[in-house]
Design goal:
four-stranded antiparallel sheet; two-stranded antiparallel ribbon
């Protein structure tokens, strides 16, 4: 990627499922002892000088969603499911997890879903941040508290935090 495009941002989403952090964010993550990830240096491709940036590789996988989670299917999508990922156009939200399942898995600061989600074009596994990491980002002015795209606080440099429902 053209690493110079990161500029003064702390983190950039590449596509839907890849996250890239700047050198200053990588330093903060180490200083804060953030868990559940590895960093891989990104290879620069562009005319401007390279900027050191790193892809965040989540290493902690969450358990499967709760069976109580609802899936809302698009009426315009065909009934058959993808032969590779076994999903079709649907909305999976909000995410539901069973408390008992979460207690069996060591939840880290950075986690990735076990289940596949579709954006209508491809399937991917979203990244989830812990409350501790979220609070550090807000306290240090890296982002505002934003929980939906319609929030007046939501600007292009903010990180969108989606709620998760825990079933007792």
């Amino acid at each position: 990627m053209d690493t110079s495009k990161v500029g003064d941002r702390y983190m950039v989403n590449v596509g839907v499922d890849y996250w890239v952090v700047s050198e200053k964010m990588a330093y903060l993550m180490k200083e804060w002892e953030i868990t559940g990830y590895e960093l891989r240096e990104v290879i620069h491709s562009g005319k401007k000088p390279a900027q050191p940036v790193f892809q965040v590789i989540p290493t902690n996988v969450l358990p499967s969603w709760s069976s109580e989670m609802k899936h809302y299917y698009f009426i315009t999508e065909p009934e058959e499911r993808c032969q590779t990922c076994n999903i079709r156009g649907r909305i999976d939200y909000p995410y539901h997890y069973n408390k008992r399942d979460l207690e069996q898995y060591p939840i880290k600061d950075i986690n990735i879903m076990k289940d596949l989600k579709s954006n209508g074009s491809w399937a991917y596994r979203p990244v989830f941040l812990s409350k501790r990491f979220r609070d550090l980002l807000i306290e240090n002015g890296i982002t505002r508290e934003v929980i939906n795209r319609d929030d007046d606080n939501y600007k292009s440099r903010n990180w969108l935090f989606e709620p998760v429902v825990i079933i007792e």
